[in-house]
Amino acid sequence: LDSVDFYDTADVILGSDLTYNAGSWRILADTLNSVLKANGYFLYLTLGHSGFNVSGELNGFLTVVQSGGSLEVVDESSSRWPFPGVGSLELLLNSSLSEKEKNVVKSTGGYKI
After folding, report:
1. Under 8 Å CB-to-CB from 86, ≥6 apart: which residues?
2. How many other CB atoms are found less than 10 A from the CB of residue 76?
3. Can you give the pLDDT at residue 99?
């Protein structure tokens, strides 16, 4: 697929397991910038696994996004937070997991949204 064919078409993009290769971070950020509408959102979930640093991967990608200047990182503290009444997507996700699922997630390094 060519992102140019989908320029400015998406209000929301959901993604998971897209940032494990640091060499693709700039391409991913550029693609998101092309496909998202001006006030669009990219929601991203990354899960840990043995020998994997979930925070390191996500923070590295966010650094690339912020250095590009064309995308804004929005979190719960931002005035542009798009989910009124939801204080945290991590809390929302965690509330939907069973105890068994929580234990699996915890044992594999957790997750970040």
Report:
1. 92
2. 12
3. 92
Mean pLDDT of successive 10-residue stretches along the chain, which has 113 residues: 79 87 91 90 80 79 87 84 82 85 82 75
Please choose, from the candidates 78, 42, 113, 25, the residue with its C-alpha nearest in 3D space to the C-alpha of residue 105: 113
Sequence-ordered list of residues with C-beta below 8 angstroms from that of 68, at least 6 positions apart, any chain: 26, 29, 30, 33
| Amino acid of residue 99 | E
**Rounded-to-integer distance, Cα 81 and Cα 75, Å:** 6
Can you tell me the distance from the alpha carbon of 105 to that of 113, in angstroms, rounded to the nearest whole number?
A: 13
Give the per-residue pLDDT at 90. Answer: 82
How far the first Cα of the chain sits from its last, in Å, is 25
CA angle (70 as vertex; 76, 42 as ends), nearest 5: 45
Residue 1 has a pLDDT of: 67
Task: Compute the distance between CA of residue 73 and CA of residue 58 in angstroms, rounded to an integer.
Answer: 12
